[in-house]
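Bump. Still looking for Aspartic proteinase PCS1-like structure tokens.
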Amino acid sequence: MSLSLLFVALFSLLFSASNSLSLSFPLTSRSLSEEPSISPLHLSLYSKAASKPPAKLPFKYSNALVVSLPMGTPPQLMDMVLDTGSQLSWIQCHGKVNGKSVQPRIKWFNPSLSSTFSFLPCNSSLCKPRIPDFTLPTSCDPRRHCHYSYFYADGTLAEGNLVTEKFSFTASPVAIGCVKPSAENRGILGMNTGHLSFISQAKISKFSYCVPGRSRSDLTGLFYLGDNPNSGKFKYVNMLTFPESQNSPNLDKLAYTLPMKGIRIGRVHLKISPAVFKPDPTGSGQTMIDSGSELTYLVDEAYNKVRAEIVRLVGPMMKKGYEYASVSDMCFDAAMAAAAGRRIGDMWFQFENGVEILVGKGEGLLTEVEKGVKCVGIGRSGRLGTESNMIGNVHQQNMWVEYDLANKRVGFGGAVCSGLKA
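Sorry for the wait, here they are.
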């Protein structure tokens, strides 16, 4: 059976009976730093549009959540980084740069093989400059195709043409970026609440994923579009939403914002004012959950309280004078990590309605940042030039995270994510 017919058969089965969407795909926690030809991406709230490219940050994420989705007719499987903190999806397209063929070491899409691929013309409504959709105004290329440029916080530039293409499970084509091929960057599956995000264009109101723990040998989890059969056991918190008219300079209105209340380490409830997790009139204090960021970031007041408790528990074990990438100084030599993790115990993030999620236990609280060094996976957001909190994928391991847009809520459910099957 051809790949195209296989996908048609599969999706017809998944849409039968209840006529509700429930598609599952393998999700891989992939260490980009082990692929030297690829510059690691870090896509998060800092990928918000700005009037000029943001300054390059000192930190590089080393892990990303990668899904392979069938796109085009007939379908081509494309690896894309799952990013709930980003809007526009894009892929690398096969082609030439300056007349020379480029052979990236990752998958690229070949438009000439797809009957549903189409360039967006310059007179398309999507090609009109619309901040915050693009970091630079769109323009026309010599072929009268819509050209765009999208800057991310680490200096990564994704530029190319806006195109439409059909995924095997979407009723109609969606607008994505078709970027110039290179050996550097993966594609992005933009999943925030913006009107150009994949989830918005595909009119899919629910998605979820299960991130495998990095201590496991099998780093493959699961990604659902639509209903998750495990959702009956999830605990839900309501998302905070903001009117389009709200003009707060530090607020990302397209992010998934959660009503976080506090942090618990073992039996100790840290004395952190709930106000530091809630956006003030300027937007500072916003707490987001982001699959595209590796570390969790906290504003200084919260970070300092976490650090003080870590010092109290394992201060003599900490790596003296060490600070990882200018954002985190709760670090240990690998030889001390297991003992330090046992003394720290477990860490919980607390939300409204009494919901708590276990974000790490024992040595699982620590993430390897370089050979021989492990750190508590929390950094200071102020060092990145923001006063917001962000829950990164390091603290989403071994749990289901469901984004229910129709009911404006996020669900959590404990799981062993490694090697999950649909």
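The first helix runs from residue 3 to 14.

Edit: fixed formatting.
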